[in-house]
Design goal:
Length: 351
């Protein structure tokens, strides 16, 4: 069941994305030729006005086909003949819907939470050397330039530190910003009641109650945290610290989602885990799709802005076939990357 939910979850992400394009196109008066849920051969089809609505057999995608999307058209309602702001709105609407889906799913998951693990300092363990510089009631707002929304962000940021035993802290104390630059903050040894020793920072964070305002606030912050995770992952790819072999594609994601459900203590917890992970994937898709890469919506936005600038400077519209060739080449490269990542997923499963 969980693996089936994973496949349907991927279909939902793509359908919601294309629905964003569809709604924005209809609202802008653009002629939509077909709106499809799924890919491959048609299972159902119904024409309503100028638009054909279809359901296809493979629940792994979908599309919103608009008049004049890829080629020039004389139709005044064609996508290519719309004002710049309308075309930009239609292009970004897909990612906007994905981000909105992620936010709604996080809200659903957090609705039943007893509270949230924020970054307000409640107390310190006995013998903590940082008590005095840090005070109960302080909020750890940033660590090394990164915003901390949850107490886990503090630990993650410290683990990503330079390793030299110092960090830049930004605190909120009595409503005012306090900066501690090059502050020597490292884990120290504490003795547990059973006599064992552990290395901790010795900072105890206060739980934040789940009020309506906090529910919305922490749901929003969780989505921003997702965006940061995507940004850091891209940074690792660009820096070379991670490569294609470290990427996970649709096959690997389905397996991960299935394992989340199977390893949960009960069905309700499994569904919550899956919903939270799908929310992360939705935000991930929203961000990745807006990168200025040919074949992605961000690539279309980039070439659209370039074309608009060229038209203003030269007084001539660029040949739309050139943009079509660019995005077609980008699609070939993108499909090749997807195939490589899928192959790696399958080989990891076999191993």
């Amino acid at each position: 069941m969980y693996y089936l939910l994973a496949i349907l979850g991927f279909g939902l992400l793509i359908t919601i994305h294309e629905l964003g394009h569809f709604i924005a196109a209809k609202a802008s008066g653009v002629k939509v030729l077909e709106f499809s849920v799924g890919m491959g051969p048609k299972l159902l089809q119904k024409a309503a006005g100028e638009t054909t609505y279809s359901l296809r057999c493979l629940p792994i995608g979908g599309y919103c086909a608009m008049e004049g999307e890829d080629v020039a058209s004389d139709d005044p309602r064609a996508f290519s003949n719309q004002k710049l702001w309308k075309r930009l709105l239609i292009l970004v609407a897909g990612s906007g819907m994905n981000f909105l889906l992620g936010f709604v799913l996080v809200c659903v998951v957090f609705a039943g939470a007893a509270g949230f693990n924020g970054t307000d300092i409640a107390s310190f363990r006995e013998g903590c050397p940082y008590e005095g510089d840090l005070l109960p009631g302080d909020t750890i707002y940033m660590v090394n330039g990164e915003r901390t929304y949850f107490s886990g962000n503090f630990v993650e940021a410290m683990n990503r530190g330079s390793g030299e035993g110092s960090c830049d802290l930004v605190l909120i104390r009595d409503g005012k910003r306090v900066e501690l630059n090059d502050y020597p903050l490292v884990p120290v040894e504490f003795t547990e009641p059973d006599g064992s020793t552990v290395r901790r920072y010795g900072i105890n964070f206060a739980p934040t109650p789940n009020t309506f305002a906090n529910w919305l606030r922490y749901s929003w912050w969780s989505c921003l945290d997702f965006v940061r995770m995507v940004r850091m992952g891209l940074g690792q790819l660009l820096s070379g610290s991670a490569g294609v072999k470290d990427m996970t594609g649709a096959v690997g994601m389905v397996v991960m989602i299935g394992e989340m459900g199977e390893n949960a203590s009960n069905a309700a917890e499994g569904l919550k885990n899956i919903a939270y992970f799908v929310a992360f994937l939705a935000v991930n898709l929203a961000v990745m799709n807006m990168l200025p890469i040919p074949a992605l919506d961000g690539g279309h936005v980039f070439t659209l802005l370039l074309s608009s600038g060229w038209e203003k400077l030269s007084g001539r519209k660029p040949d739309p076939r050139i943009e079509g060739y660019i995005h077609a080449a980008g699609m070939v490269v993108l499909l090749g990357l997807i195939a490589v990542v899928m192959y790696n997923d399958v080989m990891r499963l076999l191993r």
